[in-house]
Write a structure and sequence with these properties.
The protein has 302 residues and is α/β, with parallel strands linked by helices. 27% of the residues lie in helices and 27% in strands.
Amino acid sequence: MTALHTLLLLASLGADPLAPGDDTRTLTVGDLKRSYHVHIPPKYDSKQPTPVVLAFHGGLTNAESMIVFSELNTKSDRAGFIVVYPNGTGRLERILTFNGGNCCGYAMNNKIDDVEFTRRILDDLAKVSNVDPKRVFATGMSNGGIMSYLIASELSDRIAAIAPVGGTMGTETCHPKRAVSIIHFHGSDDEFVPFKGGKGKGPSGNEFYSVDHSIEAWVKANGCDKEPVVKKFPDTAKDGTTVTRKTYGSGRDGSEVVLVIIEGGGHTWPGHELRVKMLGKSTKNISANDLMWEFFEKHPMK
């Protein structure tokens, strides 16, 4: 589609094209009014199809919290992708969750259709920006990571690759229509979504699937090698954590499943140190933002 065609399409839809900066958009899904924040980087060019990263917040937080927690706006500005922060649902404005299957809280208990919400976000965003449909990716923290796994399965026709952080699959199985590459970050000492599965610390009371369950399901779904290539990252930070990457390659259409284990790491975002000590250690040996973007660039939709 040419730039002229894009502008004519936006005009015909009655939508004001987004410009670099931040905006909040609302839409109605069923009988619910939903919202999302969108960050357009300074180098955005409406004439060029632009990649998008969906960033789902953790449980009992919201989109604004995710902006601070992940620092993805900074990476967006450097790399040139659009980043979208959906808001979950809940009784209180700042205490929201997504329905990722077996988690979490209000959204799960009320059977909120967050898959349809995601679909509608992508439709809405395409009305006001020049989205590259082959480069739509997703990440998320905790409950948000669980949500990213669900849309990889249910919206594989729209999602090219995902990067869950501290969140496992919320379903027993996955059934993508196409191979979806995965890079999963998880701390070995995560007490909120335990690496080995089971009940997590905190108010959710959820029983979580293990990291191994998630990885094995997607290795099988993507047709990847059963044995990984293992690499240890240099311990340059000396912060009490070490990092190991396991890559299951040779999947269909060049897909991969990658597990990044932060030994000694907690329920945190690698590369970003938080003041909330109860979440555990956050490694400085790697940057989740850098590694996931490198991975996303490698895995557009075929």
